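Query form — protein PQQ-dependent sugar dehydrogenase

QUESTION: What is the three-dimensional structure of this chain?
INPUT:
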Amino acid sequence: MRHPIAFALPLILIACSGEGANSQTTATADKPFRTSVIADFDSPWAMTFLPDGRALVTEKKGEMILFDPKNGTKIPIAGIPKVDSAGQGALMDVAPSPTFAKDKAVYFSFSEERDGVKGVALAKGIFAQASDGATKLDGVTVLFRASPYVDGNGHYSGRIAFSPDGKYLFFTNGERQKFDPAQDPKATLGKVLRLNLDGTPAANNPLAAQGFNPAIWSYGHRNLLGLAFDKDGRLWEQEMGPKGGDEVNLIKPGLNYGYPKASNGSHYDGRDIPDHAPGDGYEAPKVSWNPVISPGGLLYYSGDLFPQWQGSLFIGGLSSQSLVRVKLDGDKAQKADQWDMGARIREVEQGPDGALWLLEDGGDGSQGRMLKLTPAAF
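ANSWER: The structure tokens for PQQ-dependent sugar dehydrogenase are given below.
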């Protein structure tokens, strides 16, 4: 376990520019929002808001931070397992339990090395803060590990989404740049999984009776970096395609989404992959991009601050350094807006007041800043 010093030094409250401090706000004529710089982090990966308005932020190298937007204070959270952050490895997604107000449970994902091979793991701990501010996750337990663990440092995925009824946890496992595991019925790699909240496979998953790993919900995916339910309970997912072919998919139980047998992109070495085509037996994406946007986080927006965007998906663009909006109409989706943010955007989150919150990636020239977007006239 890491950070033993965090208990001794709980209140290294790192000063940063919070909303109540020295935030910098800019507005430009070409964007319908104002951008406020709230804080700066070290290659942040994901964030989530707690019921009291504070946020949990994960950083690539393995730090989880409790951040208060009102005064800009940061408290490192102890109890996080060792993270293998080589390549695309990181302390990844973080999400409070659907019943956090009662159980204080926090779920998170991370990449790890075990016996010379690597994979993504799902863990849970109990949020605990002492009277002096010291903060930790108690009783951290790994609930689920991708299978198999393999060599290499890419395509872990590791996104978490709870079903609207709070009974199930959906978890993404990337195909680890190994291609074929996405079609392997025994491997969880290249799959969306449906788990019980204790990490065991949910009963009646759609492919278990056919001999698939019992956790699998859908398969034929590549690097799944966004997962979100809409207001009607549909599950949307975005993933990085190969050379071209980034995707937004509507995830349905038991379906094969094609990779690496079908994709609207090609292999990086130039080899062709057949495009999605009617009747090929694979579920085609609802939206795809070529040239790519390199999608990061995914958000289904339900807030009141931007009423014109209710029911839209928002995607962080990494190589495209953009914020992307996808318009939904039932089970249909279409490209809507793409704004140049001047930095790699890793995460998109909705704040308690309906503002959009972004995390810069902190790599390839990005600063790792936390940004808050409010209406231009706000």
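ADDITIONAL NOTE: The chain has two helices and 25 strands.
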